[in-house]
Design goal:
mainly alpha
Length: 85
């Protein structure tokens, strides 16, 4: 670590490289952690009785980001109407 600090002190133009490279690595590890924790197709605990893909309801979005949020909102409203009827 001290070698990196010394390198950046001697050549400050490398600071953005280490900054953006490091933030990219942190974001990549965070995304992998998110997929492991919330992914419907990932099984970490082999002794759990319930399969992870059975936890997702038909009106729930399993994606990290979805551009079409109205679709999922309409689907949720239809599911709630079906439960009350």
């Amino acid at each position: 670590m001290s070698g990196v600090v010394h390198l950046v002190k001697t050549n400050p133009a490398l600071a953005p490289l280490f900054l953006f490279g490091g933030s990219g690595i942190v974001a990549g590890v965070a995304y992998i952690g998110h997929c492991l924790k919330n992914g419907p197709d990932v099984i970490i605990n082999k002794s759990a009785p319930q399969k992870p893909w059975q936890r997702i309801q038909p009106h729930e979005n399993a994606k990290l980001w979805s551009p079409n949020t109205e679709f999922w909102q309409q689907r949720k409203e239809r599911a709630e109407q079906a439960k009350t009827a």
